[in-house]
Design a protein that fits this description.
The chain has 8 helices and 11 strands. By secondary structure, it is α/β, with parallel strands linked by helices. The chain has a domain at 94-165. The strands form 2 sheets. The protein has a 6-stranded mixed sheet, with helices on both faces. A 5-stranded antiparallel sheet has the order 2-1-4-5-6. The longest helix is centred in the C-terminal third of the chain and has 16 residues, at 180-195. It starts with a strand and ends with a helix.
Length: 251
């Protein structure tokens, strides 16, 4: 079953086309790695998929719910109530962490559970502490984001997203703000989530990670899908552009 299906997504910024008709599907339990050079449109794609940006054209279905469609030449979205329900099944992890600086690590993970999921403080704290343990952050529960390393902050942001029990998790360059020594711990967390069957779309520049973890690769160039297929396309790409991109990464 497809958790997410997007067809013919077009998006412009200030009259400049960023996405020029991209289609994307994500099956339940699948990890999709989205690759491409800077400015190719991959982050815009994932932000539209996660309902952080609106499409100019295209259609979207998420968890069998009609999210957006074309009507009289315009892209029309479902109503606020329907969109809220769809968003409640999505999690988003940003490259810049986006943690609440005035909240402790524990409160960063409990707060939305209480206010959005309507869990009791006890239920939220139990869930938060379990996730902090999973992220190897139990000993940092009372620390504030500024007291955490970049890797710890990103693992905390993953815990916060998981606390909302998403059906699909989006990652936008989750390691781009980290130095190489901290990158490994975050990638290991994502690798574990993939093994556990979490449905994920990951925008990344970590080719070896994509090769070892992703079920499917989507390579975007100049706002279109240039090549798509299993992770094995990274070892034998048919597109000259993907070959060139990979050779540039490994130089």
């Amino acid at each position: 079953m497809n958790v997410l299906t997007i067809n013919n997504l077009k998006k412009n910024f200030e009259g400049r086309p960023i996405l020029k008709g991209v289609s994307l599907s994500i099956r339940e339990g699948e990890t999709v790695a989205i690759l491409g050079p800077s400015g190719s449109g991959k982050s815009t794609l994932i932000r539209c998929a996660g309902l952080l940006e609106r499409m100019d054209e295209g259609s979207m279905i998420c968890l069998d719910k009609k999210v957006a469609w074309m009507e009289n030449g315009q892209c029309v979205y479902a109503g606020p109530k329907e969109l809220k329900q769809v968003r409640s099944n999505m999690g988003f992890v940003f490259q810049s962490f986006n943690l609440f600086p005035h909240f402790s690590a524990l409160k960063n993970v409990t707060d939305a559970q209480i206010h959005v999921k309507k869990r009791t403080a006890k239920e939220a704290e139990e869930r938060a502490r379990a996730l902090l343990k999973k992220m190897d952050l139990s000993h940092r529960a009372d620390a504030y984001p500024y007291q955490l390393s970049g890797g710890e902050q990103q693992r905390l942001s993953i815990a916060r997203a998981l606390a909302m029990d998403p059906k699909v998790l989006f990652f936008d360059e989750p390691t781009s703000a980290l130095d190489p020594l901290l990158t490994g711990s975050v990638l290991q967390v994502i690798r574990t989530l993939a093994e556990e069957g979490m449905t994920m779309a990951v925008v990344t520049h970590e080719i070896n990670f994509a090769r070892s973890v992703a079920d499917r690769i989507v390579f975007i160039l100049n706002g279109v899908v240039e090549e798509e297929g299993p992770a094995s396309i990274l070892d034998n790409p048919s597109s000259p552009a993907l070959k060139e991109f990979l050779s540039g990464i490994t130089k």
